[in-house]
Write a structure and sequence with these properties.
The chain is an alpha+beta fold. It is 20% helix and 43% strand. It has an 18-stranded mixed β-sheet that branches.
Length: 260
């Protein structure tokens, strides 16, 4: 059995920027174990599998170690591959997923995700987060999947060297750390050792949490964001009621074939 595979960099115009995701188009689902093995072999933050679902599509995402319920950058990469390489000629794609329907559209030279907003709820740090980060947060929140931590400024985000063994003990998918940006409305870094990803380069789903938070702080509905990983991710975010619109550039890095 041979399968097509593509790798695209999401949330960057640069060939070695943003977050690389593998995309594997399918006509029928593979065995879950095989999909996990392929994702482990790819060793990227996410491998997305896309299959026709009636007139729409179904999408699933695997890190090297687990299947996850929501992934923004691999959805952006999947839409890019469909638009640019698989002959998809409509302007909108509906991806059904474990997190419900996700809407994706062309936006001139970018692609826009339409995802559910994830309103964070303030909580208190029992000490583990402060210990893991080596500094006291301004505020701590929980979201559907992650902890969200707010720090004083961009330099605090850039200087982070968290103890990932402690982050791994958090009962969550991982840890999002954010602050007001110097060159953007807000900046962030994201750590997911629980999912086999020590630091994610550019995380669409995390911006479903940060956008509602920063919309309240800034009074803005539309904002620019930078994820300050080594590869950098650039995102345009808009709060639209109970949805978040996340736009970014995507570029193809690889097209190939898997031999099973």
């Amino acid at each position: 059995m041979n399968l097509k595979i593509y790798i695209a960099n999401a949330f960057s115009e640069k060939k070695f920027g943003g977050n690389p995701a593998a995309v594997v188009p399918l006509s029928d689902w593979l065995d879950d174990k095989l999909m996990q093995q392929i994702a482990a072999q790819n060793n990227l933050a996410e491998t997305a599998y896309v299959k026709p679902d009636g007139k729409d599509y179904f999408i699933r995402w695997f890190t090297p170690t687990v299947e996850v319920d929501l992934c923004g950058h691999a959805t952006l990469a999947s839409a890019h591959i469909m638009f640019e390489h698989l002959g998809y000629d409509r302007e909108h794609i509906v991806f059904n997923s474990k997190s419900g329907p996700l809407y994706v559209m062309r936006n001139q030279d970018k692609i826009t995700l339409n995802f559910p907003a994830d309103e964070p709820e303030e909580t208190r740090d029992v000490g583990l987060i402060t210990q893991a980060l080596g500094r006291k947060p301004k505020a701590v929140f929980t979201s559907r999947f992650d902890y969200l931590v707010v720090l004083d400024g961009q330099s605090d985000i850039e200087g982070l060297n968290p103890d990932l063994s402690l982050v791994n003990k958090l009962k969550a998918r991982g840890l999002i750390v954010t602050a007001k940006g110097d060159e953007a409305d807000f900046v962030s870094r994201c750590f997911f050792p629980q999912s086999g990803i020590n630091e994610d380069p550019a995380t669409g789903s995390a911006h479903c949490v940060m956008t509602p938070y920063w919309a309240k702080q800034t009074g803005k509905k539309k904002m620019n964001a930078i994820q300050l990983s080594a590869r950098r991710g650039w995102l345009e975010c808009e709060l639209a009621g109970d949805r978040v619109l996340i736009s970014g550039y995507t570029n193809t890095y690889l097209a190939g074939e898997i031999f099973i």
